[in-house]
Design a protein that fits this description.
5 helices, alpha+beta, eight-stranded mixed sheet, globular
């Protein structure tokens, strides 16, 4: 039996929809905004690779992973994806990643509310003991975003992966554990309060 259920998560700013092939065309448009696939240290699919990217995510869902398309409620546009992966039902922990957004929604409430919805779902609905984040050592924007959530760095996996271009990735590992979640939740909620 799968630990995590594949359900829609809705907030004020975003709706996280279970990823399906019906999202491919919208995601191809979304990734054009910023062309993040051109960043050598990021694992973002190009428009041409989007079908395979979505197919892989759907296939991984058979093993317990959960992938979402991120819809901006204000514009009704799909603006990116995010995913629970390496889901470990026995030990009640998961990794959160494969996250990318259109350039136009960066530094908006989109990522903050996505993480609030996902972490609430994981810790409160499914009683997780920990969530883990991983990113490339040189992806400084991603590292800062993870740290702004309140995640703590666990360490660096040196020479962890060989990338498509042949370069070798050092992977920075972060986590939030269950006892930290109430404070992290308050922090994220405070960032979503819009002053009058």
């Amino acid at each position: 039996m799968k630990w995590l259920s594949n359900s829609q998560l809705t907030g004020d700013f975003v709706t996280l929809e279970p990823l399906s092939v019906s999202h491919i065309q919208d995601l191809q448009q979304a990734v054009l905004d910023g062309e993040s696939w051109k960043l050598w240290f990021a694992s973002v699919p190009s428009p041409d690779a989007m079908t395979a990217y979505v197919d892989d995510a759907i296939l991984a869902a058979k093993n317990g992973d959960i992938a979402f398309a991120v819809r901006c409620n204000q514009t009704n546009n799909i603006v990116g994806t995010t995913r629970f992966y390496n889901v470990d039902s026995k030990h009640k922990r998961a990794m959160l990643g494969y996250t990318w957004y259109s350039s136009s929604v960066r530094r908006t409430p989109v990522n903050t509310e996505c993480k609030l919805l996902l972490l609430s779902y994981l810790f409160e609905k499914h009683s997780a003991i920990a969530v883990e984040f991983r990113t490339h050592f040189f992806n400084h924007n991603s590292r800062k975003a993870i740290e702004r959530l309140g995640a703590k760095q666990d360490g660096i996996l040196r020479n962890h992966q060989i990338l498509k271009d042949g370069s070798i990735r050092d992977t920075v590992v972060y986590s939030i554990i269950a006892t930290e979640w109430p404070t992290v939740r308050r922090h994220l909620q405070s960032k979503l309060i819009i002053p009058n």
